[in-house]
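Lay summary. Proteins are chains of building blocks that fold into shapes, and those shapes determine what they do. In this project we predict the shape from the chain. Here is one chain we studied, written as its sequence of building blocks.
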Amino acid sequence: PGTTESRSCTCGGSESRTCSASCFWGAWSGCPSGECSPGTTESRSCTCGGSESRTCTASCFWGAWSGCPTGECTPGQTQTQSCGNCNTGTQSRTCSSSCFWGPWSVCVGGGACPPGSTQSCSNSCGVAGSQTCSAACTWGACCAPAEVCGNTCDDNCNGLTNEGCTPANDECSGATAISLSTGRTTVTGSTASATNSSGSCTAANDVWYRFTLTVRETVFINTYGSAYDTYLGYVSGTCGAAGGCTDDSCSTVQSELVYNMPAGTYYVVVDGYGTASGDFTLNIERLPVGANGVSWTIPAGTNTYSGTTSGSSLVSGSCGGGGPEHLYMWTRCPSAASGTFSAHTCNTGTNYDTVIYLRSAVTGADLACNDDDTTCSSSSLRSRISATVPAGAGMYGFYVDGYGTSAGAYAATMTRP
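And here is the predicted shape, written in a compact code that computers can read:
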């Protein structure tokens, strides 16, 4: 009696018992109480879907529940907000069973659409795309996933048209026709996505244009205003190897061509130096050639030229001139400053009733025109003009013409800037 013994408890610790006076063991006592059997598990459904579980620990108590997915709201919860200044009232959204917010309800009011919403659409070229509603409740541009070659739309809304596409005028056979205007004709484009065509001037990317003259004219073609180092060439009649290939002009990396061209069709190639390519500006100006089919180039300064007009009239000035005419011309660089041009036929070598005029190929209009000038000391049938030539690139032509059908010998003094 009085002796004791002990043993380990299932949930940790130990318990003991004591031998009674009657020599029998008493009850075990001392084990901690618990709520489960170590290692057992139980599970339950989660509020936001799925299930979670917990495990009984070695100390016979349940561990923490784990495994439920996280969310951003309580299922069934709602939120409201003002629709904004382009709509009236409020809009709402509800928390889904997975504990995430559903979409905002559509506002009703003055806007075309709820901000941030999208819809399918077709652009002006018929290309399928999508558009997004702006914060001002108006639909944005209709944008396609990729550019569609050959149309006139910026399909993918990146600010460029037909990027990555080979242009239709990549070869001479596909040259784009240019309708020439009275004054300067300007077209713009890019050689960035073009290829090097057969018959071009260099190995760089290039594109082709064509135009038609109905009479003989002096033509001034240039790429002033282009964004890269250009090359120019031309072909007359039919496609073939480009001639007259020109690189740098006027101390720039742009190019110019000046030719006296008879009536016919001409092809112009916009090329690049080396492998240069990019955005270009192509300018074309022209002046009708006189009765003799010649266009003389005059230098800067004062010079006197003589000649004899004969034949049929091809050009008339704004103040008259129905007789045969001669043409004197020059071109100007982009850096040229404005200046004064003056001319007269008051010289003793002039023996008929002249009409003279200065014409701008930039505008196609006369800057000055005169028939009889009384300041000429020898005869009032002779002529004198003076005009301001504007700054910048351009071609200008001085014509010695005749009043009515008058023709003959002349001596013309010219001063050009």
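What the prediction tells us: The radius of gyration is 46 Å.
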